[in-house]
Structures are given as C-alpha cells and as structure tokens.
Amino acid sequence: MSEASGSTLGSDIQAKIGQHLRAMYDDVVRQGVPDRFLDLLAKLDQPKAGDGPDGEGGRS
C-alpha cells in the first residue's frame, strides 16, 4: 500500500498484526521438524553409490 493513496495502517493496527503473526509462527516453531522430514534430510546427506571425491558418479 502506498502512502499516496491514504490507505496506510496505523501503528496500533500494525502492532496488533505483529502480535498475531508472532503468536502463530511461535506455535509453528514449537512443533519442530517431523521425523519423516529428518529422515529425508539424512538420506540426502548420504553419498550415493559411485560418488567419489573425484566427482565421478553422474553429477555435473
């Protein structure tokens, strides 16, 4: 929203929106990462067969 249009939010409304967003995202952060995602990340970190330090293994 541009200030020229006169449709800016007051600081009290912005603060209230910020409080609600923080509350919502704090809840998401507290939930943590699901085990299935951690398993997928662990698999991605494992080297594939044929991947060696010399770069062979099909990757460019």
Describe this structure in words.
This protein has 60 residues and is mainly α. The protein has a domain at 11-44. 53% of the residues lie in helices and 0% in strands. The chain is built from two helices and no strands. It has helices at residues 11-31, 35-45. The longest helix is centred in the middle third of the chain and has 21 residues, at 11-31. It is elongated. The two termini are 45 Å apart. The relative contact order is 0.07.
Summarize the helices and strands and which ones pair or pack.
Blueprint (H helix, E strand, L loop, with lengths): L10 H21 L3 H11 L15
Structural class category: mainly alpha
Major sheet = none
Total DSSP helices: 2
- For the CA atoms, what is the radius of gyration? 23 Å
pLDDT below 50 for ≥5 consecutive residues: which ranges?
none
Oligomer: single chain
In short:
With 60 residues, the chain is an all-alpha fold. It has helices at residues 11-31, 35-45.
Task: Output the keywords.
60 residues, 0% strand, 53% helix, NepR, 2 helices, mainly alpha, single chain
